[in-house]
Amino acid sequence: MPFKHIALLGLGLIASSIAMALRRNNSETKITGFSRSKRTRRKAEKIDFCKVSESISDCVLGADLVILCVPVGAMGDLMQRVAPYLSKGTIVSDVGSVKVNVISEINPFIPKEVIFVPAHPLAGTENSGPDAGFATLFDNRWCILTPTDQTPIDATKKVKKFWQSLGAEVCEMDASHHDLVLSVTSHAPHLIAFTMVGVADEFSKVTNSEVINYSAAGFRDFTRLAASDPIMWRDIFINNKDAALEILGRFTEELFKLQSAIRRKDGDFLLKYFERTRSIRRNIIEAGQDTAEPNFGRKK
Amino acid sequence: MPFKHIALLGLGLIASSIAMALRRNNSETKITGFSRSKRTRRKAEKIDFCKVSESISDCVLGADLVILCVPVGAMGDLMQRVAPYLSKGTIVSDVGSVKVNVISEINPFIPKEVIFVPAHPLAGTENSGPDAGFATLFDNRWCILTPTDQTPIDATKKVKKFWQSLGAEVCEMDASHHDLVLSVTSHAPHLIAFTMVGVADEFSKVTNSEVINYSAAGFRDFTRLAASDPIMWRDIFINNKDAALEILGRFTEELFKLQSAIRRKDGDFLLKYFERTRSIRRNIIEAGQDTAEPNFGRKK
Going from the N-terminus, what domains does chain A have, and what CATH number goes with each? Predict the structure, then answer.
């Protein structure tokens, strides 16, 4: 563990999971945390996954790694507020789901002799808040680092070691490529899920209680995505607008092709399409990013 | 258990699960099964969830309940082939995911003094074939009966008892309303998942291995749906064309609204939308159709 004192700014699902994953390793690393919300601070104190500070300056005092764990839209402000309290040589990192915009929001406020290593752990659940965290969240999950031209290689290496010690696999990527990859694997699927749940909610020919009762047939899996933190997702779409719109445009074109095949009752087209998508599932299971176990929504 | 001998025509996920659920209850009911595919018959014999017959006539000989467990597009043909071998008073039921079209395909071949009770158990996984079945598939899941004008109330009651004995909750619905409800809760979500997976597969700026590696951020849940049986889904969309196209039309309109909000960076609109969809998730958990446990794709 290359850090002696880690300060977590923001105390939600990601921050609490970082602290719990560190504690699981019996790490001697000091962990302090701060949230602007008093209620969140009291909650975090009760769960006791880190030493909760009452001010941002207290929290980062002496820290050699400061991680910004707030929604993407709040990163710039937070960086501006914490900047005066950072010592020389401190590494600042973040967990934002969008990288190009977040880097351009944070970078102007990084003091001289403070180092910024942008990062994005691809982990999370549909739950949010300090009580949603758990120690195994990052196990076998990817954390993508997107160092800038100014990031020294040594600092990137240290942050890499940090995430590996939490159980994650680490890779590096160009920030703008990261934003495109995530728009395909995360942002578009979430927006589509939000949309489908919204349509079902408004479709007057079918009652809401019918939708809910009969949701196990597919709709349920969309509601899981569509239950993710609303503020986090608002910020993601606004901050990764161009990549999100590009994928959604492609999605619409493709949906029209399939709709047209249904209208024409073109069974061959549909069958070939569905056979292709099925094989992608197998590759994901082989890559260890899901289990082959059937999901029938009940683990009791 | 109101039936002494149940014949299963088709030996996939649903048929094998029916047999296993019956056996779990130590039911004395005789279970015979037939599949047109020799390979499937041998597989079923190996798993040994029912007595496998070598012909359709052998399978239904003496059966008081015959269940058609084949894809929606094969129902009419199967009914025509089995009709000559049915005795007076036999009840025929099915498990088709579409009801209006399936009823109109099956009904013309129902012999006089044979009774048809259309049914649709809302249960399944992304896996298919006789080895995908398991005894608890129907526990706490809905089975929707859509009796026609010619279905005697007594027969509907018997089929209701049958599904209840398998662990399902049973309700009745008009066939055309069923098709609309399912187009919202199942058919549209599946088509959208197929589309999203197809887009990701074809998007050349992001490699397939990137999509697969970083799928845990949302995309993975779509691949689960998009891995469902291709023949089954081809038949569903062709046989429930009008309802599917109606919902997909609504979906596209709604998606355009959200895309436009992203383009305009209208954070308030997005936030309100996402808060609404989140609350629907809570209602599904309260209705017992999913657990609140976070899904992070690893159960090991």
Answer: 5-173 (3.40.50.720), 177-286 (1.10.3660.10)
The Cα angle at residue A259 between residues A256 and A262, in degrees rounded to 5? 155
| ipTM of the complex model | 0.88
- What is the SS3 assignment for B140? coil
- The residue type found at A46 is K
What residue of B is the nearest CA neighbor of A178?
B206
List A168's β-bridge partners, or say none.
none
Q: How far is B80 from chain A (nearest CA, A)?
A: 22
pLDDT tens string B95-146 = 999 999 999 999 999 999 999 999 999 988 888 899 999 999 999 899 999 9
Dist CA B267 CA A267 (whole Å): 41
Rounded alpha-carbon distances, angstroms, from residue A47 to A29, A34, A129, B33, B210: 18, 14, 11, 55, 36
pLDDT(B261) > 90:
yes
C-alpha torsion A24→A25→A30→A33, nearest 10: -30
Answer positive or negative: Cα dihedral of A260, A182, B253, B265.
negative
Q: Do the beta carbons of residue B113 and residue A271 sit within 8 Å?
A: no
Rounded to the nearest angstrom, the minimum Cα separation between B73 and chain A is: 10
Residues of A in contact with B299 (CB under 8 A): 291, 293, 299
Give A-chain residues touching B284 at CB under 8 angstroms: 212, 215, 220, 223
Question: From the candidates A95, A127, A215, A299, which should be mutated to test the interface with B, based on the most B CB atoms within 10 A?
Answer: A215
Nearest Cα residue in chain A from B179: A206
Query: What residues are paired with A51 via a beta bridge?
Result: A32
User: With 80 as the cut, is the pLDDT of residue A297 above it?
Assistant: no
For chain A, the first-to-last Cα distance in angstroms comes to: 37
**Which of B95, B169, B215 to mutate to probe the A interface, most A CBs <10 Å?**
B215
Q: Please tell me the distance from the alpha carbon of residue B42 to that of residue B58, in angstroms, as a whole number.
A: 16
CA dihedral B142, B23, A295, A197 (to 10 degrees): 0
Contact B225 A221 (CB under 8 A): yes
